[in-house]
Write a structure and sequence with these properties.
Layout (H helix, E strand, L loop, with lengths): L2 H31 L4 H29 L1 H19 L5 H29 L2 H33 L1 H14 L2 H6 L4 E4 L6 E4 L7 H14 L1 H32 L4 H16 L2 H10 L3 H17 L6 H17 L3 H9 L7 H30 L1 H22 L19
Helix pairs in contact: 1-2, 1-5, 1-6, 1-9, 2-3, 2-4, 2-15, 3-4, 3-6, 4-14, 4-15, 5-6, 5-10, 5-11, 5-14, 9-10, 9-12, 9-15, 9-16, 10-13, 11-12, 12-13, 12-16, 15-16
Length: 416
């Protein structure tokens, strides 16, 4: 793997995932300290998702127009400033505004790095490259909750939020220094190097025309794929709010113990990224994402039966194993289904991210709303059923998108 690719994508992705891991622990506990109801806590956790959801389609067309480098820079700046502002937020409306800003910045960052990865990888090796990227994010999610738990316990949540924002802004160094629109890619097998030409810049109208045409041509594949990714991201987001709330309010665990539970589950999660990539490239994408969501659904259904730190840890570790098996799967599926650069790739990836972010946004809202009406346990079972829907829809209605090496584009791909 070339150093430029490492510095351009993997390191800043780790840093921002670290910050998101901290927020996954701190935000629900901070909102609970402010005396917010389950529903308002759910909306607080969904704030960044709502911002991302609103920003996804515009971000896709912005990426088509201004390119990857500037999109990455702007996205990281907005995320970092939103995280810093959390330290001064003591009301629901302020938490929501910060979440919206973080989410809008994340939309531009996510789509620009997704387009970058799509451009520099081939179908036949894309699973491993994107799974490694997913693994990097999981390493950040592992370190974030543990650090956030100890930092907030020792110095307070405001300082933890300031640290989080500073870390995010530090990630700006990498796209500033290492991202260019001309990307060199290397083939480990052929030992050849080629240069990817600069992505053609397109207008917003041009991007949307290509997108609509592409959607019409592939509606029978993209419809179940879109529904499946919504369900997939809903169970992933739901677990991030369920675990800390169940641990704090049902098991009465302290913040350090909750951080440890989430951190260990994240460690199991991140250990699976390479097997996930191998399965995707060797056997097919379905061999990774179908068992991934089945295991997550099972783990979620077992949470209400967890009556101690040890049993909750075992259950969340099973969920982490399942989620790790799906490392990079939805990004890889989106990259496989995307049109070429210059023909609406950015707009398509914006739509794909919007569908996934609909699930990310829905998860905490579903948990909070059902928990207020019926209790926390029923909301957990609903999220489990959504996980089963993800596995069945993607497994039965979406065709396999792996191309065998003999069918793949002969140009070399990034070695990862």
């Amino acid at each position: 793997m070339r150093a430029q690719f490492l510095y351009a994508v993997y390191i800043p992705s780790f840093m921002l995932a670290f910050c998101q891991g901290m927020l996954a622990l701190l935000l629900p506990l901070y909102a609970d300290d402010l005396g917010l109801s389950y529903s308002l806590i759910g909306f607080t956790l969904a704030g960044s998702g709502i911002g991302t959801l609103i920003g996804d389609l515009p971000a896709g067309t912005i990426q088509d127009r201004i390119g990857n480098r500037l999109s990455m820079i702007i996205g990281i700046c907005v995320m970092g400033m939103g995280m810093l502002a959390l330290s001064q937020s003591d009301r629901f409306i302020m938490l929501m505004l910060c979440g919206l800003a973080i989410g809008a910045g994340a939309a531009l960052w996510n789509i620009s790095r997704h387009a970058y990865l799509t451009n520099v990888t081939l179908n036949s090796s894309r699973g491993r490259a994107i799974a490694i990227f997913g693994g990097v994010n999981r390493i950040g999610m592992f370190a974030g909750p543990i650090t956030g738990g100890f930092l907030s316990a020792g110095a307070g949540m405001q300082l933890a939020f300031l640290f989080c924002g500073a870390m995010a802004l530090l990630a700006l160094v990498f796209p500033l220094l290492f991202v260019t629109e001309n990307v060199e890619c290397a083939s480990a097998r052929k030992r050849r190097i080629f240069e990817l030409p600069p992505a053609p810049r397109t207008s917003t109208a041009h991007s949307y025309r290509h997108l609509l045409s592409y959607l019409r041509q592939h509606v029978w594949v993209l419809t179940p794929a879109g529904f499946g990714t919504i369900c997939a991201q809903t169970i992933r987001a739901g677990r991030q709010s369920i675990v800390p709330l169940y641990a704090a309010l049902i098991l009465d665990l302290d913040v350090e113990s909750i951080g440890l539970v989430m951190g260990i589950a994240a460690a199991v999660d991140m250990s699976m990224f390479y097997p996930a990539g191998y399965l995707m490239d060797r056997f097919g994408r379905k061999y990774a994402y179908v068992p991934s969501f089945l295991l997550q659904a099972l783990g979620m259904a077992l949470i209400p039966f967890s009556g101690s730190f040890a049993t909750l840890l075992a259950t969340t570790s099973l969920i982490g194993f399942g989620n790790g098996l799906g490392s990079g799967t939805m990004l890889t599926l989106g990259a496989d289904l995307a049109p070429p650069q210059g023909e609406g790739m950015g707009a398509f990836l914006g739509l794909w991210r919007m569908l996934g972010d609909t699930g990310q946004t829905s998860g905490p809202i579903v948990v909070g709303t059902i928990a207020d009406a019926l209790g926390l346990a029923p909301s957990i079972y609903v999220i489990s059923i959504i996980g089963l829907a993800a596995a069945s829809t993607l497994g039965l209605l979406v065709p396999e998108t792996l191309e065998k090496p003999s069918q793949a584009d002969p140009e070399p791909a990034t070695s990862a």
